Amino acid sequence: MEDFYPSEVFETLSSKNLSILEEQLSHEALIISKLRQYSRQCRDSELKNLCSNLAEKHKSHYDTLLNYVISRSGSD
Prior knowledge:
By secondary structure, the protein is mostly helical. The chain has a domain of 50 residues. It contains two helices and no strands. Helix 1 packs antiparallel against helix 2. The longest helix is centred in the C-terminal third of the chain and has 28 residues. It starts with 14 loop residues before the first helix and ends with a helix.
């Protein structure tokens, strides 16, 4: 599985919050990976576009979560 986030940004969050955020980031990364793979495999252009668009939507979710973690990493 591809590692999309640097582990050092998690150091200042509580362990419970860290665990929740790491898990959610992992889920989003997995969804992105699967949808990109599905998009590459689709022959139907409508399904291909749907998978690509969903992958981008989840990438946006991932980026939002990661930006939150990064913004919190220096504030505690």
